[in-house]
Amino acid sequence: MKTIFNIPTAFQSTQYRIYWLGAFASVSGYNLTYFAQLWLIHQINDSTLFLGLAGAANAAPSFILTLIGGAYADRVNKKLIMIGSQIILASLVIIMAILTIFEVVEIWHILVIAVIAGSVSAFDLPSRQAFYPELVNEKSLTSAVAMNASIWQSIRIIAPAVAGFLIALTSTSVVFIFSAVGFTMMAVLLLPLTGISKEDGNNQSQTKLTDQVKDSLKYVFRKPEFRYLIGLAMFSSFFGGSYMLLMPIFAVDIFSVGAEGQGVLLACSGVGSVLASLFIATRKILLPSGTFILAACCLSGISIAIFGLLAELTGSYTLGILLMLTTGFFTSLHMISTMAALQQMVPSELRGRIMALYGINWSLMLLGGVQAGLIGLALGAPFTVMLGGILVATLSIIFIFINKEFVQIGQKAKGIN
Length: 417
Description:
By secondary structure, the protein is mostly helical. Helices cover 82% and strands 0% of the residues. Helix 2 packs across helix 8 and helix 3 packs antiparallel against helix 6.
């Protein structure tokens, strides 16, 4: 009997399995921290603007520094960058825990620590994207991409459920302590991993850092498939991702379900994300066409828009849960398929920088919280989220009908049928 899900081929590599467990712990730390930051800010001041500023504080440094971080990932020891980053991040969240325990935390504390953490992430995340492909063979790369993306697309949403219950049962400081444990686990598990050394590493280190960054940008703008894949992902993150930052408003003011309910909403989106991630990870040669990527993006936008609309019209928590499930599924299909195509096409010597450019999506989602916060002051959170979803779906539809180069992307990537 044919099964829907098989064991991901990337897990045949012992080194990748170890890395995946560490990344799982670390990404959980990232998201537990971010949930706790937003919750604290909402408790101190319930303005949507401050929620947006929290997103900007996390994202702006990463947005500015990520290409430099990608260049370093292509020229120095990626493992040491990641280990150092985890140690710094663990230290920062311990400081947040102490401030919270003694009840002296203020919004400016949260924003300053978020800026420092965002700066560290600008070096950590590109190194991850360049490192894990070295732990598997070429045939398992798509599986590795999907399993790595499954962490970011699902734990980013599942972890808040844990955070919500921890806050309800204990306190926000406990969430920060769990985050520190996650970062520390990643640092420890990275120690035995080796990866594959690249022969051109010495040549890379002789090139000026600014020239390396310029070369990567020139490469992306020369290649239409890279321009369109990264461009659509950035647009979707900036306008479509606002529901993540505004979720405290939905949980407290619209659905009246508190921190636990917010965690459940995001966890349901996480279930959809996990299903999409596993589906792609367990296919032997599943690298989708441009049409598939555009359809997934369009359906993601539609689901987000309906979530915002029905929240305003009905205030139904049950419908919100169902729509978070579909949103997580289609958003993950879009983002994971995009990343798989990029990882298959990118030259290994440019991997750190190109994937750093793609990684700006996370920063753009947080920066999108600023525009969402400002629009939310005038229109309210539901209509703000609905507008973002409509924009994402509209651009996808336009690309389907007028952008032949995007539709043909799947035919250009290695191994895409």
